[in-house]
Amino acid sequence: MSAQRQEVVRRLSAPDIAARKGREPIVCLTAYTAPQAEILDPHCDLLLVGDSVGMVVHGLPNTVGVTLEMMILHGQAVMRGSRQAMVVVDLPFGSYEGSAVQAYDNAARVMKATGAQAVKVESGPTVPDTIAYLVQRGIPVLGHVGLRPQAVLVDGGFRAKGRTEAERARVLDEARATEAAGAFAVVVEGVAEALAQEITAELDVPTIGIGASAACDGQILVTDDMLGLFDWTPRFVRRYADLRARIGEAVQAYAADVRARRFPAEAETYRLKAAGA
Ligand code: KIV
Predict the structure, then answer these.
(1) What is the mean predicted confidence (pLDDT) over 209-216?
(2) CA angle 123-37-121, nearest 5°?
(3) Which residue, 87, 57, 83, is CA-closest to 70?
(4) 96 is in which domain, residue-wise?
(5) What's the CA gap between 187 and 142, in Å, rounded?
(6) Which of 62, 186, 212, 237 has its Cα between 20 and 30 A from that of 218?
(7) Domain annotation covers residue 4
(8) How confident is the model at residue 5 (pLDDT cuts 50, 70, 90)?
(9) How far is the CA of 210 from the centre of ligand 1 (A)?
(10) Is the pLDDT reported for residue 155 higher than 60?
(11) Confidence band (pLDDT; 50, 70, 90) for 277?
């Protein structure tokens, strides 16, 4: 065994996150690559390898085209880049809705290939049974209710949920069923504050909000949105940086230097070694 053994850091687990209900807010962000995970890890409790990777990294119009193979590759990268945050990998559209057995086979594949601590699934009428099936077989599950990006083709767009009485009741029922099935926490996306408050008050497991007000037990954002890497961001996103503009300026300066032969300069150039050196 190597004399320089790496310091062992215990990662946060599903029970650690569940125990944060009503306590210190849970800090979560999405992560897709190893260097990004390395930067986020010291500041976050949970890193989600979201299927938003399809839109953010691969330029897809929505998350429907994301594959299990993509989630595994990005999950492996995020696990390599992080040390202490819990890592959760999204099960993509078409990988878990067919049956509980299909969900188990694919979730187990993700867990083995990536070493992540849990998977996330979006809610739907049959999903609580699937969550129970996974949890009973040793796979921690993060639920996801409210706006469901994987249902974009049925819903006809990304719209906030639970603003009518019928929808409010449906989202609340889904949240209750997700908890009853054994999810260790539930992402609540795109709902009015009153509904987020109601869900958070009812559930014994933490709620993690995105566009769901400060009422939730934790918050998550798509990292590239909060860093300002896109021209447009939804109303619920706070931009903590303006990296798109900063990167544009840096690349413009590089292009000008190359065109003017100012780059590379002497300090950036290798020379032959002097004889005998
Ligand atoms: O895929 C994703 O990034 C998500 C978050 C928006 C919660 O599911």
Answers:
(1) 98
(2) 10
(3) 57
(4) 14-239
(5) 7
(6) 62
(7) no
(8) low
(9) 8
(10) yes
(11) low
Q: Which amino acid is at 93?
A: F
Give me the catalytic one of 189, 202, 249, 268: 189
SS in 3 state form for 168-218?
HHHHHHHHHHHHHHCCCEEEEECECHHHHHHHHHHCCCCEEEECCCCCCCE
pTM for this model (two decimals): 0.94
* Alpha-carbon distances of 4 from 31, 139, 202, 267, rounded to whole Å: 29, 33, 49, 34
Active site annotation includes 189: yes
Residue 7, pLDDT score: 66
Q: What are the pLDDT digits (tens) for 50-84?
A: 999 999 999 999 999 999 999 999 999 999 999 99
Pick from 277, 264, 275, 189: nearest CA to 234: 189
Residue with tokens 């940086």: 241
Whether residues 139 and 256 fall in one domain: no
Instruction: Identify which of 40, 208, 222 to mutate to test ligand 1's pocket (most ligand atoms within 8 A of the CB).
Output: 222
For residues 88 and 218, membership in a common domain is answered with: yes
Higher per-residue pLDDT: 121 or 125: 121
Closest CA to 223 of 68, 23, 80, 43: 43
**Number of domains within the chain:** 2
d(CA 75, CA 49): 6
